[in-house]
Amino acid sequence: MTRRDPDSEQITVELPEPPSFRLDGRRALVAGASSGIGLGCAAALAAAGAQVTLAARRAGRLDGLAQAFGGRGWSAEVLPLDVADVAATAAAVAAKGPFEILVNSAGLARHGPALETEAADFDAVMNLNLRGAYFLTQAVARGLVAAGKSGSLINVSSQMGHVGGVDRALYCASKFAVEGFTKAMAIEWGRHDIRVNTLCPTFVRTPLTQQTFDDPSRVRWIEEKIRLGRVGEVSDIMGAVVYLASDASALVTGTAVMVDGGWTAG
Predict the structure, then answer these.
(1) Domain with 45 in it: what CATH number?
(2) pTM
(3) Which residues are catalytic?
(4) C-alpha to C-alpha distance for 171 and 193, rounded to whole angstroms
(5) Parent domain of 153
């Protein structure tokens, strides 16, 4: 009786190839790129090889940022853009696109008790956070469909698009709406291989949020909610946006990537 020694047999194993996080050759539009989360997202995409267009209302600051990007060997162009101006945004995207990647980080927060919400504040927040985000996403998608290209469209939402918060009824309303249209667009545009997702940070330390961090009672509330025991930093967002923009998330659409330190888990 002959026995084969399994240790002497050569076995050919085909290992799966991991998807790439690289974005070389892809064009990315980052709205709200002049500071904070938007700037962090733009830097992360550029470092991964994307050709980034920095868009924001502050044109002067964008020029300085483009020079800084160039100093790192990153590709960056400048596009002065007010996302709240729907017609001008659509025209700019049509002229400069198509963009295979969109990161919409332009946003506005006006916090206060729901009983004291003013109509003017409601309109200002919704005009940018909802109306502007909706039509910017539409404009980029139109360019991709016309060019027959695939793409990844990312709206920077918030954990407050999934839970409520003190003095944040207006902000929550705008971000819950972003979550809704993102899912619907993902369903409609899947056949074009266009993915649409949201990125949902917790409280991240930026110039925009400094007022919140200056309030000790708010800081206590935040620290009690974040299970990892610390607030977010811009660097915490950068890996997540590269993941959503790249082929590493090729089967991810119509969903929210939570970067919230466990806030919404509880």
Answers:
(1) 3.40.50.720
(2) 0.92
(3) 171, 175
(4) 31
(5) 21-205+233-258
